[in-house]
Amino acid sequence: GAAAASSSSPSSPTDARPAGAALHFEILARQNRARASVLTLPHFACSTPMFMPVGTNGSVKGLTPRQLEDLGCHLILGNTYHLESRPGADVVEAFGGLHGFSRWKRAMLTDSGGFQMVSLLHLADITEQGVSFQSPSNGQQMLLTPEHSMRIQNKLGADIMMALDDVVSSVNPSFERFEEATHRTTRWFDRCLAAHTRPHEQNLFPIVQGGLDYGLRQESLRQLMERDDRIPGYAIGGLAGGEDKESFWKVVHWCTQALPEDKPRYVMGIGYPVDIVVCSALGADMYDCVYPTRTARFGTALVPTGVLRLQTAADDPRPIDPNCDCMVCKKYSRAYLHRLVTKDSSAAILLSYHNVHYMMQLMKGIREAIQDNRFPEFVKSFLATFYQEDGGKIPDWVRNALKAADIQV
Amino acid sequence: ITTSRGVTADTPFGLVMTRKGLPSYLTPDNLKALSEVKGLHVCAAHFFDKKGMYPKTGRNLAELIGLAEPNSALLLLGLRDPVTFNINMYSGASAVRNTMLSVDSDSGAKPITHEMYMDVVRRTQPDLCLSLSDEVVRNCGGKRAKRALKRTREWLEKSVADFSTAATGEEGSRDNEALGSVGLVGSIFASDNLEDSVEHARVAAEIASDEVVGFAIMGLGLRESHLARREALQSINKQLPKNQFRYSSGSASSPLEVLQAVECGVDVVDGSFANQLTDCGMAMVFDLNPRKEEEGSGTGTAGTSASASGSGSASAANMNLNLWSEEYVYDQGPLKAGCGCYTCSNGFTRGYIHHLLECRELLAEVLLESHNTYHMAQFMKTIRAHIAAGTFSEYVSAFRKNTDLFHSDQ
């Protein structure tokens, strides 16, 4: 039978975590506001800034754990809503938690389940108690409370778990709703803290809310930081929902400026390469998004100049990226991949493989540039290549955001 | 078998089915880990689309599919994909009159000429290629059956002619230089008239022995009885030179049938049924080492697990597991205890694979395919070991008895 993962023992003999703590964050190098760090978690010591691929149901789109390790992934995400629906947190717990179940040995993070509910479910309704919704399997009225989310995530056993927050779409027009959500998020975080049964093995992160409003964001930050001694790391939520890019970077900027330096900052739902570079410049450390693997299934590869749609690469004998050293680029031509995409599973796997490699290499580039004290040069070079097909024109929001990060482009 | 690019394969071995050259769920890194896989079956029909044959770039097949390294598997090219597409029975009339062969592809039925097929062979330069064989079902009628034999023989003659000019440098043979590195496998059609088939095989041996590296016995697996299949394989086999290998398509859709085919002298077996199991969410778990005694006891028995359900009894009799079944929700056992494949040796459980299937996650098929392909390759390895040790007949008896036990338990 499968051995249950032992999540309370140190991940290595040189585990840097203080006794009883589930997380240790050490900044190795800084340049302006960017930092390159080591985030030591019970299952693995992760290098940040890092991108975390999403393994919705416990697996990352056709890639095996060995391949994910080969690609340099340190942490993957599991979706609480999906896993509780199927097969159920109790089943996963019986298998030794998500680690035992999925055979991923390195670090994992689970979300609270709230976001998926609100975005996926018909008739999801938020009250002070929790998120009430209609179960898709039997139509029954159900309620996801902060306590329930903690119970589920404690069973899943990920290194990092997210507090249940009151998520409002960032394009929701009502200020009152944002205000309500800001305060309720704090109240729910307190309930999460009280209900969390494994603080020495799992790290509970709160999520800063407040929409796109400076005042509300400051209020959320202030309230959460009052609880700083019980917080191992912070997430910045309520973004990646279609808001304008000026607002997007400003919210990240306000939050990273205010949050404690010595704790990791996780910007949720971010996966576009430019967004990641900008957020890293502003001092964020962790990102997750379905984008690289989802776009792979639709036949789109990530390249330094943006994206490459294999559907229109019928006779092109070149690899996806001649400068990429991944297995897919070393072996296959665009012409061959063109024949596979959207028709054969092997295409989805091969493109996911390349896209994850691309993201891992991007993060490595960011980290090394910070450590070598040449991060601004890295950013300029990245942007010059990325916007090459637009005549090198860098969008104003990128320029403005980097200026706030002391990088002139 | 040793190919011109130095790939070697010990026989008997099984071929792994592919789609457009690649196994459906195994990327080159995962396939490489399956070192006992000796060969892949590539289908030319997968390389046709509305605009014709692709890709037009100059790479040979091995490079195209990313399997050009030394120690990689051997590539055998045929025309039709026998797994995905049945014989195209309905658009054959004009094609047959015009010596064409109608075959189904992703973009519909395609009439293929011998020259079109040979063009694919020249461009892709597989290690081995089958000569074309006609495609008819059993009991298609005497005239049609006779025509099938005739067409198959004519295509064989044409292939032999093409291949024989490959090395000579004669005028008009430039095109065929590309065939210099390819091994021709002469196809023989096994129709339901045994006498005709045997004569056809004799003639094929006469015209082709000098040029081919092996022979393919085609037309089986299409409603004939096991007895008729055995008769066909054995009689045809007698007509063929001993020093050339035999491949047979359609003669094996279960482990017992593999054993029968090997008993009848087949060296290269169509192993695609293992891949078909993957597509159904099933895992192959039959015992590779059945004991002669009752109740297959000892190590290596299939189907034992820490399962809460009752599937642990009569262990040696379980041939395949259907991972879709709810009985596996809490099953923490591996697909097969003691299996050395990636899936089983890394603690992936039946319960997890069941979950992945339920969520329609691609990793389910990846893990199942890794296991099924490994298990099939281990089966062939076991067969080779028994042949080498002179114990193959005993192995077959023990295997049959084990399977009969299963049937009698029911």
List the helices and strands and how they pair.
The complex is a heterodimer of chains A (409) and B (410).
Chain A: E1 24-31, E2 34-40, E3 45-48, E4 50-53, H1 65-70, E5 75-78, H2 80-85, H3 89-94, H4 97-102, E6 107-110, H5 114-120, E7 125-126, E8 131-134, E9 141-144, H6 146-156, E10 160-162, H7 175-195, E11 203-205, E12 207-208, H8 214-225, E13 234-236, H9 245-258, E14 265-267, H10 273-281, E15 286-289, H11 291-297, E16 300-303, E17 306-309, H12 327-331, H13 334-340, H14 345-371, H15 375-386, H16 396-404
Parallel strand pairs in A: 4-15, 5-6, 6-10, 10-11, 12-13, 13-14, 14-15
Antiparallel strand pairs in A: 1-2, 2-3, 7-8, 8-9, 16-17
Helix pairs in contact in A: 6-7, 7-8, 8-9, 9-16, 10-15, 11-14, 14-15
Chain B: E1 13-17, H1 28-33, E2 39-43, E3 48-49, E4 52-53, H2 61-64, E5 74-78, H3 93-97, E6 101-105, E7 108-112, H4 114-124, E8 128-130, H5 142-164, E9 183-189, H6 194-208, E10 214-218, H7 226-239, E11 245-248, H8 255-263, E12 268-270, H9 272-279, E13 282-284, E14 320-322, H10 342-345, H11 350-358, H12 362-389, H13 392-409
Parallel strand pairs in B: 1-2, 1-12, 2-5, 5-8, 8-9, 9-10, 10-11, 11-12
Antiparallel strand pairs in B: 3-4, 6-7, 13-14
Helix pairs in contact in B: 5-6, 6-7, 9-12, 11-12
Question: Concise description?
Answer:
By secondary structure, chain A is α/β, with parallel strands linked by helices. Chain A has helices at 65-70, 80-85, 89-94, 97-102, 114-120, 146-156, 175-195, 214-225, 245-258, 273-281, 291-297, 327-331, 334-340, 345-371, 375-386, 396-404, and strands at 24-31, 34-40, 45-48, 50-53, 75-78, 107-110, 125-126, 131-134, 141-144, 160-162, 203-205, 207-208, 234-236, 265-267, 286-289, 300-303, 306-309. Chain B has 13 helices and 14 strands.
Overall description:
The complex is a heterodimer of chains A (409) and B (410). Chain A has 409 residues and is of the alpha/beta class. Chain A is 40% helix and 16% strand. Chain A is built from 16 helices and 17 strands. Chain A has a five-stranded parallel β-sheet. In chain A, a hairpin with a 6-residue loop joins strand 8 and strand 9 (141-144). In chain A, helix 6 (146-156) packs across helix 7, helix 10 packs antiparallel against helix 15 and helix 14 (345-371) runs antiparallel to helix 15 (375-386). Chain A is globular, with a radius of gyration of 21 Å. Residues 1-13 of chain A have low confidence and may be disordered. Chain B is α/β, with parallel strands linked by helices. Helix content of chain B is 38%, strand content 14%. Chain B is built from 13 helices and 14 strands. Chain B has an eight-stranded parallel barrel, surrounded by six helices. A two-stranded antiparallel sheet of chain B has the order 3-4. In chain B, helix 1 links the parallel strand 1 and strand 2 (39-43). Chains A and B meet through helix 1, helix 4, helix 13 and helix 14 of A and helix 1, helix 11 and helix 12 of B.
